[in-house]
Write a structure and sequence with these properties.
By secondary structure, the protein is mainly alpha-helical. It has four domains: about 170 residues, HUPs (Rossmann fold, 3-Layer(aba) Sandwich), CATH 3.40.50.620; about 160 residues, Glutamyl-tRNA Synthetase, Domain 3 (Glutamyl-tRNA Synthetase, domain 3); about 50 residues, Orthogonal Bundle (Helicase, Ruva Protein, domain 3), CATH 1.10.8; about 90 residues, Orthogonal Bundle (Arc Repressor Mutant, subunit A). It is built from 19 helices and 13 strands. It has a three-stranded antiparallel β-sheet. The protein has a two-stranded parallel sheet with strand order 1-2. The protein starts with 5 loop residues before the first strand and ends with a helix. It binds one RNA strand through helix 4, strand 6, strand 7, strand 13 and helix 11.
RNA sequence: GGCCGGUUCGUCUAUCGGCUAGGACAGCCCCCUUUCACGGGGCAAAGACGGGUUCGAUUCCCGUACCGGCUACCA
């Protein structure tokens, strides 16, 4: 890398950040950090009609959760501020006017309504080299007319004047050479009637002004690339243009097409990184974080959707991804999102990470279900014991609550059919034995039960399940003597007695 | 419709002309486990199609098919 890379993620603050967006951030971040470069977040809020309150904060909270902190942004500051395009409005007109002066762009006075009508009337209507000759713009109007229109403050836009029959090409870091014929692309609006730039102008101007060296975005942008290439050529010179990479799309698991928020709702999995509530409608969309995903797993899973290091390794920390990442190994084709695989990554990270790193989040989840933890050491012991059987952080609630609170319902039906007086006597004896035990650990407890069972001519196997039901309430959880050990003598005996009462009723 | 992009097991993918096509998730079976998991072992499962180029094509080229993206004064 000849110079330190500067990459940017340029979201528009219109709602929650979805999978594909986070992955675009990730690949930007990994590439930049791999080469010791900078990661910039620029807010593309040029469409004032789509502005959504809180969306920008949400984006930064999401990046923070993922561990993908920007070096420069409206929130983090930086030498190229402001990083919000709405605050840079004044900058863009100058470039648009320059293009008009050079003959690369023109004023267009057609109203949005007129164009809408045109689209209804003419199938596949495009404002292009052919149709512009019959429309109201500075190419068809007399110079004097244009001047008087402008002087009168008539609403107008500035459109790029696509050249005739020119090959526009560039080298995409992922796809290689991609070329377009300029005849096929329409005269995109560069500056809107409200004076705001469109994405097309803003992205080129700001990438230049912010000295962006590499521009990565989703594949859905490929068709508008020729507009950007031409603008670079006209404004700042192709030799100064960043290198482009158009990332493959993340597809819906069933059927085909881009993964959308709706697919998640329909199929029952999150699409947004974190919970998002639309401030206008109040509609809530759930996120990976709240579904119980660890950021390490979320990032890992996203990285593997379209990239791998060429080995069989699938588990990577952020630091490892930074070290291994290369744009050359990013795929061309889209990847269907597989929620089952996503959960597998999470279970791997739950096992891999020390329980202390997610203890707080589990504490919050337990609190939400009415269990308040006052003994963190006990919590960590419990988490350590049950982590192997948890796929999502939310699984910890069911798997651990009985350690802190006696089960509300006991699955009596699981033991009743084989229950008899002999077993009842056994458990009464077991309580007495437990009361007398010197050391309270799982091995001693197991030995105690086995010896007592032998003395009563009972098979231990017939007694383990009842004991489990008594302590846990159901047929799940880690080894029953480990549970008893953690529960302690008093609580263990109490729960046995409680169930015994239920059984003799 | 037009333009652009893509195409290896159900899914994510390895392979940079030599393949008995490897791994992972999911599925099925077995083992471990006096619960449920974890774990271990195994089974099943793929190069869209047709032409070239080549001693040899999954790999390179062309065509076809299929899938997707875009086609706003949205990003």
């Amino acid at each position: 890398m000849s110079k330190k890379p500067r990459v940017r993620f340029a979201p528009s603050p219109t709602g929650g950040l979805h999978l594909g967006g986070v992955r675009t951030v990730l690949f930007n971040y990994l590439f930049a950090k791999h080469f010791g470069g900078d990661f910039i977040v620029r807010i593309e809020d040029t469409d004032q009609t789509r502005f959504v309150e809180g969306a920008e904060d949400y984006i930064f909270e999401t990046l923070a959760w993922c561990g993908l902190e920007p070096d420069e942004s409206p929130k983090h500051g930086g030498p190229f501020a402001p990083y919000r395009q709405s605050e840079r409005k004044a900058i863009y007109r100058e470039y648009a006017e320059k293009l008009v002066a050079q003959g690369y762009a023109y004023y267009a006075f057609d109203t949005a309504e007129e164009l809408d009508a045109k689209r209804k009337e003419v199938p596949n209507f495009q404002y292009n080299q052919i149709s512009r000759a019959a429309l109201k713009n500075s190419l068809t109007l007399l110079e004097a007319e244009v001047k008087s229109l402008l002087d009168a403050g008539t609403k107008h836009v500035i459109r790029i004047k696509m050249p005739a029959n020119e090959e526009v090409k560039f080298t995409d870091m992922i796809r290689g050479e991609v070329s377009f014929n300029s005849d096929q692309v329409d005269d995109k609006v560069l500056l809107k009637a409200d004076g705001m730039p469109t994405y097309h102008l803003a992205v080129v101007v700001d990438d230049h002004l912010m000295q962006i060296t590499h521009a990565f975005r989703g594949e859905e942008w490929l068709p508008s690339a020729p507009v950007h290439i031409l603008l670079w050529q006209y404004l700042f010179g192709l030799e100064n243009m960043p290198e482009w990479a158009h990332l493959p799309l993340i597809l819906k698991p069933d059927g085909n097409g881009k993964l959308s928020k709706r697919d998640g709702d329909r199929l029952g999995f999150p699409v947004f990184a974190m919970d998002w509530t639309d401030p206008k409608t109040g509609e809530k969309t759930t996120g990976f974080k709240e579904h119980g995903f660890l950021p390490e797993a979320f990032v890992n899973m996203l990285a593997m959707l379209g990239w791998n290091d060429g080995t069989d390794n699938e588990i990577f920390s952020l630091a490892e991804l930074v070290e291994k990442f290369s744009m050359e190994r990013v795929h061309k084709s889209g990847a269907k999102f597989d929620y089952e695989k996503a959960k597998w990554y999470n279970s791997e990270w739950i096992k891999k990470l020390p329980v202390s790193s997610y203890r707080l989040q589990v504490t919050g989840m337990l609190a939400a279900s009415g269990i308040n933890i006052d003994d963190n050491k006990k919590l960590e012991t419990v988490l350590e014991l049950i982590k192997d059987r948890c796929t999502l952080l939310t699984d910890f609630v069911q798997q651990s609550s009985f350690f802190f609170k006696a089960p509300e319902t006991i699955d009596i039906a699981a033991i009743q059919p084989k229950w008899n007086e002999q077993k009842n006597m056994f458990f009464l004896e077991l309580i007495r034995a437990f009361e007398l035990m010197q050391s309270w650990d799982h091995e001693a407890l197991e030995n105690e039960l086995k010896e007592l069972a032998a003395a009563n001519q009972l098979k231990p196997g017939e007694l383990m399940l009842p004991l489990r039901i008594m302590l846990v309430g159901g047929k799940f959880g880690p080894h029953v003597f480990n549970i008893a050990e953690i529960l302690g003598r008093e609580e263990t005996i109490k729960r046995i007695q409680h169930t015994l009462q239920l059984l003799t009723k």
